Every structure is written in C-alpha cells, then in structure tokens.
Amino acid sequence: MKQKLRIFVTNTVARVAKKIGIGISIGEVSLPRPFALRLHTVNLTNKQQDIIADINQIYIQLYFWQSLFSFSFVGRTTISGIHMNWAAISMKPIEFHELKTSFSSRSHRKITFSVEVGNLLAVAQLTNTRNMAELLLDFQKVTWDDFMIAFGNNVYFDYLKQLTSNTSISIIALLRKGKNKKQFPFFNAKIQWDGFVLTTKEGVKETIDMPFLQDALHLALKKKGGKNIEYISYSQIPEHFVRAVLCTEDPNFFQHAGVDPSFVGLAMHTNEKSRAFTRGASTLTMQLVRNLFLHYKKDLFRKAEECIISLLLENYYKIDKQDIFELYTNIIEFAPNVYGLSQASHFYFGKSFSELTLTECLVLTYIIPRPKHFFDALLLQTEQLRTNLCQHIQSFSVIMLRKGLISAIEYQLISYTIIFANPFETLVLRVDTTGDRVTSDNR
Question: How far apart are CA 245 and CA 234, in angstroms?
Fold first, then answer.
C-alpha cells in the first residue's frame, strides 16, 4: 500500500512540476491521518539535473465540506527545512526553518490562500472566470525588521543590512490577465507607509542624498574598471538625449514613483510569449539602482531589491527626478569600460556630448539595452545591426514627432548616415520610403 501511494504521489507531483521545467524526487510518502499527507526528503532539480531546492518535510492536510448548494475545501501545508539554491530566484541560497501555507475554496472559480514566513504574512485571492484571471495580493503590516530576518541573507546592497525599523507598511497589488493572448496583463499596486522610519541599529536616522549617490557612482565605476571622463549635470544634458531616452526607456519616468505598474504587465506579456525571463520591467530609477548598488545576474530577488531601493529613493529619501536622470546619464554603460554620456560621445562619435545630433542621440538609445552586443556587432558590421538600427531610428523618431518631442523640421532633418569615430566605419542606412521594408548599406 505504501509503495503504491508513494508511486502515485510521486508521479502526480512530477507531472505537475514537469510542466514548468522542474524535476522532483520524494524520499518517503506517508498518511499520518485521514486526508493528510507527509512527504519526506523532497528534492527539486532543473533541466541540467542540478538540485535547486531540498526540503526536509512537507505536511499537507485537507478538509472538505459539502452542503445542498456548495462544496468547499480547506487545506494547510507546513514545509520544514527548506534550502533553496535556485539561480532564477536568488544568486545566494535561501533558507527557511519553516514556511506555512493555507488555502480554501468554495467554488472552482475562486480560491484564497496565504503564505507565512516567520512574522511575514501574505494573503492572496485568485479568481478565474471565462474571460479573465485575477490575482489580488495583500501584505498587511510588514515591518522592515521582519523582512530582514526572513531574507536579510539574500540582500545584496550592504547599506540596507544596517538599517532597522519596527514600523510597518501595507501593500495591496492586483494582477489581471485576460484569456485573450493578445491582451496585456494589467498590474497595479498601492503602498501605505505613513510613519515609516528607517534608522541604523544604533538609532541614527540615515539619509541617502545626492552626495551619497555621487560617491556610490564613482565607487561603482571604479569596481567596473571603467571611468566617466566628465560628470554631466542635468542642465548640461542635451534636450534631444533626454527626450530620446524617456521615449525609448521610460515614457512615464516623471509620473511614476520609481516602479511603473504598466511595465510589469508588459514584462509579463513578453516573458509569457518567450517562455523566458527576457524583460524585467525596469524603469530608469531601477536601472540606476542596479548600476549603483546591485549585480547583473537575472534573478527574481535582485528584481525585488531593485524595486525596494527605487521606491525608497523616490518616496522615502525624496531624491529628485532630475537628479536620478543625471546620475543615470553618468553611469549607463555604452561599451566595455565605457560609461556615461560624455565618454560615449567621444568613444563613438569623436565629439563632445554637447555636439550630439538627434540622430546620434537615437543611436545611443539603441545601445543602452545592449552595449556589449552593439559594440561587437559594430566592429563586425553585421547586417542585422544595420537593419535593426535603421528600424529603431525610424520608429522612435516617428513616436517622438507624434508626441511633440521633436518638430516636423527636426524630423525631416534626421540623417541616416551615421558617422562613427575610428576604429568604426561610417554606416549609410538606405531607408525605404514606402515603409514596406528597411535596408542598409555599409561604406
């Protein structure tokens, strides 16, 4: 009987896990009481058969009720001895002594569940109808100290580890996804943190200000092995560059509070289509945070830390938007060991940043998401680069014109001859004015 039970449970769980690319093995299965299940020594593996999590024990208990009009069930799960070494989640191992979950449902369309780690509690409600699925998340009275007790080992930015606070915040987030695959998911969140105060463990209220961030910028550049040959203040940044970056990287920069909910929906839509973590929903503030304080490995915890620091910078420490854009302009990477607009202008175009044309600003915005790839492709003069760069200039110049960010005259004067400095060659992009296709030549 026990052997049959173990085979049934293992096979059932394995089928579910396989759908998301995870392998699972279970050491022992037992039934300690009716409608209860205990799994011992559970291991999760990735596609390379590496162990990404090992769990000492999982205890599951179910309760069922049936009336004349409805059927409902309640379940409780206690997971003990969790050690997770999953690169997609965190670059550092995650360990929990115990994690508790509960779930309940009175219909197949709605289920409520909760997750409890230490003193942290999250409650979620999942509603599934014919036309859409909706997830409501509620984090009530989360304190900084409770968060650090649970996840402090995985925090990368050392500054955060020295902070303490027993004041709480509450977060309510809504994610809605239509069943039509062409529909973008909708995401929004509300954070309440009135009276929230962070201090050092000695009771001193620390402040992050522009001098702190500028020092962090110089330290980050030194660690990266690069340098910024000339620090540019916001008032010195060419208006074309500001508008082009906002258009291509973060259109709602001056409206959002560090994290843009619309970006989250767009990222989920893109990642769902590609079945990979290809888009990260990063605002300019989040990109700045990553460059100043964090690492470049893609994992969910780094993304969460980006969000936390970005929200703190804009809402708690009240860093001005123009200051954030200024810092971003001076640290963004454009090529190996080439950081900041000033150095990029000399490196690619052999001129001062103040002399950049609209076309050259658009070229630089094309580089921002892919600096190393662009550098290699430009040296090799790949056809793919020439085609993509031409399409980028065409599409975003049209968007800038429609938004009133450039005039009709400026649009007409956009050049498709890109004169790069040595050792790069000049690119002459031949634009198909019919709009049916884009081709390019190299000279």
Answer: 13
**What topology does CATH give the domain 210-442?**
Penicillin binding protein transpeptidase fold (1.10.3810)
Residue 390 to residue 427: CA distance in whole angstroms: 10
Which segments within 199-295 are labelled E, that is strand? 199-200
Q: Note the pLDDT tens digit of each residue in 394-409.
A: 999 999 999 999 999 9
* Length of the chain measured in residues: 443
Contacts of 80 (CB under 8 A, 6+ apart): 55, 56, 57, 58, 59, 97, 98
Weakest-pLDDT range from 97-111, 233-247, 402-416? 97-111
Question: What is the Cα–Cα distance from 298 to 287, expressed in whole angstroms?
Answer: 13
| SS3 label, residue 375 | helix
Q: Domain coordinates of the chain in residue numbers?
A: 1-107, 118-205, 210-442
Q: What is the pLDDT of residue 441?
A: 43
* Integer Cα distance of 74 and 77 in angstroms: 10
pLDDT tens, residue by residue, 162-204: 999 999 899 999 988 887 776 778 888 899 887 899 999 888 8
DSSP string, 272-333: HHHTS-------HHHHHHHHHHS--S--HHHHHHHHHHHHIIIIIS---HHHHHHHHHHH-E
